[in-house]
Amino acid sequence: MPDLSKTIDKYDTAESHLEGAAKYWSSGRADYLKDWNSFRLVFQKTFIPERHKTDLWKLMTHRVQQPKENISFYSHKKVALCCELNPTTNEIREQIIIGLISRDLSNFVLSKVHMDVDELFRDILDYERVGDSRRGRFNERKEIGRGGQQERSGVTKGNQQEQNVKSTSSSSSKNTHLVRCHYCNEPGHPVQNFSKSRRPRGSCYGCDSIEHLRRDCPNSQSTSRTVPASDRSTLIVDLAHLWLI
Asked: SMART domains in the record, alphabetically (predicted)?
């Protein structure tokens, strides 16, 4: 004799959670709702209309794995949709593979032989595990390579900056030799950097004295020759005599 205590517990639990229209529905059918099986069948007939296989097939075929969707979540959802159509194991396997987003994974599981859906799940999970391990390893190599490249780039940048500093210093040195002071006429510095005391305003250009001008400077190398008045007269007479001749 079957154990009716379990079905009675399910029936009592379900009936205690009825609300709204479902509660009135249960009261109107109290005469033939005696256990869980009768309750389940009548409830499904009233509130869960039967779906046509065409709609079920369309819903199942449109269910594919979404980008970044968990592979286990997709697979089990796909199986649940397939089971409503009572397909064979090979048909379920085929529909799961068709909906996979990864072409490599699809080719991998197609090359395998699966006795049931659980074997298909194991192959899918093994493929994902190996793929995750490979991606993690290659990402580590990329990070190491990127770090070495940045270090080499830093050294190269430092060398370039050092060369720029040397080039700037060399250019500055060359420019320094080309500069000539307008005050002392000496090369090597501009007039703004003239370190000696400057000549007082209005002083002599030869000795910086303010008591006389350059033309009266005793240090001047050029001396003016003074012609006596008698010599000037003789010169004039001689010139007149030459004209008369």
From this structure: ZnF_C2HC
When comparing pLDDT for 78 and 160, which is higher?
A: 78
Which residues belong to CATH 1.10.1200 in the chain?
53-131
pTM reported for the whole predicted model = 0.44
CA 189/CA 175 separation, integer angstroms? 10
Fold of 53-131: 1.10.1200
First and final CA of the chain: distance in angstroms? 178
Q: What is the DSSP string of 163-203?
A: HHHHHHHHHHHHHHHH-B-TTT--BTS-GGG--SPPPPTT-
**Percentage with pLDDT > 90 across the chain:** 26
Half-sphere exposure of 191 (CA within 13 A, CB side): 5
The token pair at 25 is 């529905």
**Residues 243 and 235 sit within 8 Å (Cβ to Cβ):** no
* CB contact at 8 A, 128 and 71: yes
Residue 104, amino acid: D
